[in-house]
Amino acid sequence: MRKNILITGASSGLGAEMARQFAAKGRNLALCARRVERLDALRDELAGTGVTISVHAVDVNDQASVEAGFAAARDQLGGLDRVIVNAGLGKGARIGTGRFDANRETAVTNFVGALAQCEAAMAIFREANAGHLVVVSSVSALRGMPGAIAVYAATKAGVAALAEGIRSDALGTPIKVSTIYPGYIRSEMNEQVAHRIRFIVDTEPGVRAMVTAIEREPAKAIVPGWPWRVMAPAIRHLPLGIVRKLS
Fold first, then answer.
1. What CA–CA distances, in Å, run from 42 to 55, 84, 178, 229, 239?
2. Contacts of 165 (CB under 8 A, 6+ apart)
């Protein structure tokens, strides 16, 4: 059992709900994000679960911050068994509409920030010769997406490819690497547009599907199973004009 779990982006949304569900399973947690006051509130909320919870101010766009936060979490918990690379942004705009700033911020945070997290996690796992790296991608990574989510989808495709490269490198070792492709799950990131998103599910059941998949430690998992295991092949292979209408 992976007893000590580090989660980035734990101050809200999917990260916070994963923390709640893993705490309910008796796992010790290292909660990482920039908004430490929210992490403190979540730690207080989970105080009655009987697990050990450490809080760390981590800016995924600052490699030194990531390395220091992960090392402190390892030391406080007495080791890290699983790291969930979850932190990210969903802001963006249609390419060519003058919002390079928003698109660049998402690109840097979601890909370069994920790279920094993977580097720090794998350094710890290689030293221990054990561990489970979990990279949270998205079903939007399965195909190029239009409009405001074009860059977001591209970054999620990028982190999926990154995770696969790390998985290939770790084959034959005790280190496991999983890529999770969540479908549309309600969160703080999408609350302004959730009413317009098809097939969206509420946070708790959506994250429950993620946690169940993570515990199996697969190479890849698309969650929730319905409708995404049916939709995923369609997204990959249907003509782009049809896929565009599904997004």
1. 9, 17, 26, 32, 44
2. none
Per the listing, tokens 């430490």 go with 36
- Alpha-carbon distance 72 to 198, whole Å? 40
Q: How far is CA 222 from CA 193, 209, 228, in A?
A: 22, 9, 7
* Domain tally, the chain: 1
Tens digit of pLDDT for each residue in 84-125?
999 999 889 999 999 999 999 999 999 999 999 999 999 999
Active site residue 181: no
Answer whether the bond into residue 227 is a cis peptide, omega within 30°: yes
What range defines the domain where residue 12 resides?
Answer: 4-246
CATH number at residue 203: 3.40.50.720
CA–CA separation, 120 and 169 (whole Å): 16
* Burial class, 49, CB count within 10 angstroms (exposed 0-12 / middle 13-18 / buried 19+): middle
CB 88 within 8 A of CB 113: yes
Residue 53 pairs in a beta bridge with 29
190: helix, strand or coil: coil
Q: Sorting pLDDT into bands at 50, 70 and 90, what band is 246?
A: low
pTM for this prediction: 0.93
Measured at the CA of 73, the angle between CA 6 and CA 43, to 5 degrees, comes to: 70
- In three-state secondary structure terms, 242 is helix
Q: How far is CA 245 from the centre of its chain?
A: 26
Residue 201 · residue 183 · CB < 8 Å: yes
> Which of the residues 70, 111, 152, 184 is marked catalytic?
152
